[in-house]
Amino acid sequence: MAELETYSQLQAELQSKMESLAPGQQRIARVLLTDPEGTAFRSIAETAKIAEVNQSSLVRFATMLGLKGYPALVRLCREHLADQANLIRRFDRVQQRPGSIQSLFAGVLDHETDNLTRTYARIDEADWNLAVKSLTDAPWVYVMGLRKCAPVAQLLSYLLRLVRPGVEQIAPAAGMFVDQLRDLDPDGVFVAIAIRRYTADTVRALNYAKNRGLKTIALTDDSASPLARLADTTFYIETEGVTILRSMTVFISIAQTLATAVTIQNGARSRQELLIDEQLLEDFNVYSEM
Fold first, then answer.
1. Of 98, 106, 198, 285, whose CA is between 20 and 30 Å from 247?
2. Cα 273–chain centre separation
3. E strands in the chain
4. pLDDT digits (tens, 9 = 90+) for 219-271
5. What is the pTM of this model?
6. Does residue 78 contact residue 84 with C-beta atoms inside 8 Å?
7. Between helices 70-87 and 7-17, what is the axis angle to 10°?
8. Residues 6+ apart with CB under 8 A from 281
9. Do 111 and 239 form a contact (C-beta atoms < 8 A)?
10. Quick one: which H or E segment has residue 251?
């Protein structure tokens, strides 16, 4: 095996091997995937303790990947950290600010700006164009996100449905989940949305869609996500925040941007769909007059 030269190569290698790794090796892989920044500055003893393995297991793990021991893993993580630092300056954490409401607002704004910048900076243009083309051209688009990700799935489904036909939100409601999966069009696209802790139904549905031959897109939080191992195209969304629950702001932004890109790609077709929608809204008096 040729020696891995970048963290991105390490990430791809770990994702492809994850399911075949022994439990201890999986714990090492998750540490490397979820916390490369921390690993960049940890000793082999510290990383071994976090992964609950012996130091010798870390050395063997690196060797298995074609690397020259634990220092080579650290080097890849440090290069990744340097790349990320070039994307955006780290903001001061809100805990370091005075405890006023203005400080909370400022902290949230800082984090959300950071999350947006880091997410969009990481998107590969070729992956984005491929996803937009798939969402535009496929006869059917299926979108699934549960629990905290359900509003994102609903928004993306709603926006796509405005500009193209054949969009369905998959949800295990009223006992129809299996029926919805049974009717998946193999020529369609399946979009799965999930963050840690990943809902089992979303993972199983994405796996089923992939095996059925659909193109698959994942919106998820990091490269250790089971969605990332299954999807053809994955976009990693930053969810760090200062609020009680993890931030979903960037998910909403990505959903809106994807729908806008599909609208532009669709051209006249999208315009016609919007005209039909506006006429129906008027005919059924959906909105009250001011």
1. 98
2. 29
3. 141-145, 167-169, 189-194, 215-220, 233-236
4. 998 888 889 889 999 999 988 776 667 788 999 999 999 999 998 887 756 56
5. 0.69
6. no
7. 120
8. 287
9. no
10. helix 249-266
